[in-house]
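Lab notebook, design round three. We kept the backbone fixed and only want residue identities now. Task for the bench partner: fill in a sequence for the structure below.
Input structure tokens:
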């Protein structure tokens, strides 16, 4: 109660709560993504959000009175904030596991100036090279662009904006900004992360193209993966599937917004082969259990048979 009545500690308590809520949202998102290669990215997001909460808690407890140590802690936060987006860039089996070592190495390299300031130059703030500052901005932009073409554009924008606010002292041209100088700005950033994480949990996928079999067997999991991994990998999946569809004469194409199923709606002779081909491509990113959760095979077959009887 004393902490809450103190106007100095109140914003940091709010930042602590925002970080914890963001971590909870990321954990729920990771549970929903189980069976896909997006789980490591969710783990990185949980770690980053928890460190945001730690940052707020350290300031609230008065342990960040030294501006240099506060800046070092914030740099560690920034190093983890860029990891989820980097993790998604390598989300393809089987290399997705070893890619996490590369992501962890990146985080260590980004946080190295904080360790150098703490152990080599005690009392001095971390010195971040101008190239690294531009690199942080580029990583934030890449993460946003990967999601802005999906149904998660609003959550992605909130999370990116919150991350940029937290890393503002390490962006080019903003070197004079120090961690803790604008506590309510940090609070807004933490709650942007939390709001983006909670909004990302809202279902936004709806299949619309082709027969019910194609909707539930191909389009629904395809759109679900787009919302999970972002646009980059789903476009790669579409490119691979469309190349095979063209070579085999199937009248369907995968696009960024779903399945475009052309041809005679009563001709289903190619559906089984198309579904099997799609499954083989998707298994580089998801398990069979994940596919089963994102489509209803029995319902699709029954519904398609009913459509056939009605058309007849």
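Proposed sequence:
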């Amino acid at each position: 109660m004393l902490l809450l009545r103190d106007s100095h500690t109140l914003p940091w308590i709010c930042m602590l709560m925002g970080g914890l809520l963001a971590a909870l949202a990321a954990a729920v998102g990771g549970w929903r993504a189980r069976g896909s290669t997006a789980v490591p990215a969710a783990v990185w997001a949980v770690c980053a959000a928890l460190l945001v909460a730690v940052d707020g808690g350290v300031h609230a407890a008065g342990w960040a009175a030294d501006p240099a140590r506060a800046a070092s802690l914030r740099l560690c936060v920034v190093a983890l904030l860029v990891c989820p987006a980097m993790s998604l860039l390598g989300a393809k089996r089987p290399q997705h596991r070893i890619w996490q070592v590369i992501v962890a190495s990146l985080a260590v390299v980004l946080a190295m100036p904080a360790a150098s300031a703490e152990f080599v130059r005690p009392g001095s703030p971390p010195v971040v090279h101008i190239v690294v500052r531009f690199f942080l901005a580029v990583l934030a932009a890449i993460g946003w662009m990967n999601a802005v073409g999906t149904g998660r554009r609003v959550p992605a924008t909130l999370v990116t904006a919150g991350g940029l606010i937290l890393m503002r002292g390490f962006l080019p041209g903003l070197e004079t900004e120090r961690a803790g100088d604008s506590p309510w700005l940090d609070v807004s950033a933490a709650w942007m992360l939390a709001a983006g994480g909670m909004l990302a949990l809202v279902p936004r996928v709806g299949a619309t193209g082709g027969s019910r079999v194609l909707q539930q067997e191909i389009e629904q999991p395809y759109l679900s993966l787009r919302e999970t991994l972002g646009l980059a990998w789903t476009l790669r999946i579409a490119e691979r599937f469309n190349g095979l569809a063209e070579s085999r004469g199937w009248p369907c194409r995968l696009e960024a917004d779903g399945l475009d199923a052309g041809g005679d709606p009563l001709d289903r002779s190619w559906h089984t082969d198309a579904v099997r081909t799609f499954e083989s491509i998707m298994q580089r990113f998801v398990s069979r259990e994940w596919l089963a959760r994102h489509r209803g095979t029995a319902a699709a077959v029954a519904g398609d048979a009913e459509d056939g009887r009605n058309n007849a």
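Keep this in mind before ordering anything: Confidence is low (pLDDT under 50) at residues 1-5, 297-312.
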